[in-house]
Amino acid sequence: MIIAQISDCHVMNEADHPHNLQLQDAVARINSMKQRPDAVAITGDINGGDDLTPYDQAAIILGKLEMPFYVIPGNHDDRDALRQTFDQRGYMQDNFIQYGISHHDVRIIALDTAVTGESYGHLCEERLRWLSIKLAEDYESPTVIIMHHPPYESGILSMDGTRCYEGDALAPILKQSPNIERVMCGHLHRPTFAWFGGTIAGTCPSTAFHVAADLLNPEENLPHAEEDNPAFQLHYWSGSRMVTHQVSVAKRN
Ligand SMILES: [Fe+2]
How far is the CA of 103 from the centre of ligand 1 (A)? Predict the structure, then answer.
């Protein structure tokens, strides 16, 4: 099984905005792969505008994906708008946008780390309890967790201030489940990997713009990396292990 991961699309109202065009290119690339991904995980920050109108554009672009896709909210998203735009399959029924998808070869568990009106991520008792119960349903099948905010510090200080702060509570829950192959996050707008909760956690680059590896810089400005292309990832489950690849998309102006 192959799961493509698209993150932080930051779709805008203008149909020809570079963010939209780059996302279109990513979607076209995924659709045209000889070995097409079986599913696409879209790990938050679909909206890039100041209001909710870009979801119409996002629906058009992401609606072209020729395989099932699963979305979770990022800090720029609105839960109600996500439900209205993408929940034709009815998997976003809970208060939070958390769900388990079990009919693929790899189980996908979506966690909702968004906090309305805030940039940082949070996993409250309710969300963590839900995860424990969901994981306990199946300790055998290969499983990935998708969530927007990474639960670990990256060293990019301006981003670490808005990470998911409940890493210490999340890690022991993940450790109880021996079948978690990945924790797939977004938010950082650049690729990272870290050992976390007894598995490999990582962040997927953005299809909109890249953040620089400006480590341990105390300045608060978000360091854009103009020289780096947008990208998405492919998580290939071979039957015995998961291998992650990264695919770049050309920058549009
Ligand atoms: Fe983002």
Answer: 29
